[in-house]
Amino acid sequence: MSKYKKKSMEELYRLDKEENKNAKKFPIKILLEDVRSMHNVGSCFRTSDAFQVEEIILAGLSPQPPHKEIHKTALGATETVAWRSISDIYQEIEILKKEGYIILSLEQAHDSIALNQYPFSSDEKYVFIFGHEVWGVQQDTINASHACIEIPQFGTKHSLNISVCIGITLWTAIQNYIS
């Protein structure tokens, strides 16, 4: 018999909506640029809720709540994670820079920094930009970023699903705040 026993729902203790609204968030924002899949957007909300992200910013083609296809994967997180839609990503990046955020595009690019090698600091605030499922983050957006980071991959496929990238990125970055 295993020493591991699944926790009951009561033992998992989860914040209710009001507690979550007042809970301290990690100084991290997610910016989705032209992410067209509602399932990816919904998954971003759910993962952002799990990691107490400050905000999701939706730009370009990225769909916005409320929508039943987003809700399928968000499972209510559209009501617990702050979000907004913007019309000018470059203006937004400049505002975020002035607010002290480090802007990091997640993309496979020349001279990108491996995610596990990036010098994250608990004294900094970050914006992670994820792009279109096929074309990725636009070059002009990469140019407007402080740096470009990449998740190392070792198989035959050349990319990961955005929802997977968001989870890996948040978990890696948040290690610096919780350690």
Report on this model:
- The chain has helices at residues 17-22, 38-50, 68-74, 89-98, 139-144, 162-178; strands spanning 26-33, 53-59, 83-86, 101-106, 113-114, 125-130, 147-150.
- By secondary structure, it is an alpha/beta fold.
- The chain has six helices and seven strands, in the order αβαβαβαβββαβα.
- It has a seven-stranded parallel β-sheet, sandwiched between helices.
- The mean pLDDT is 96.
- Helix 2 (38-50) links the parallel strand 1 (26-33) and strand 2 (53-59).
- It has a single domain (24-178), classed as 3-Layer(aba) Sandwich (Alpha/beta knot), CATH 3.40.1280.
- The radius of gyration is 17 Å and the shape is globular.
Short description:
The chain has one domain (24-178): 3-Layer(aba) Sandwich (Alpha/beta knot), CATH 3.40.1280.
Main attributes?
alpha/beta, seven-stranded parallel β-sheet, 7 strands, 33% helix, 21% strand, globular
- How many domains comprise the coordinates? 1
DSSP strand tally? 7
- Fraction of residues in helix: 25-40%
Strand order of the largest sheet: 3-2-1-6-4-7-5
For the record, the CATH class is Alpha Beta
- Structural class determined from secondary elements: alpha/beta
Indicate the proportion of strand residues. Answer: 15-25%
CATH level-3 fold name = Alpha/beta knot
| Spatial separation of the terminal alpha carbons | 32 Å
Mean pLDDT: 96
Unreliable residue runs: none
Reported for the largest beta sheet, the result is: 7 strands, parallel
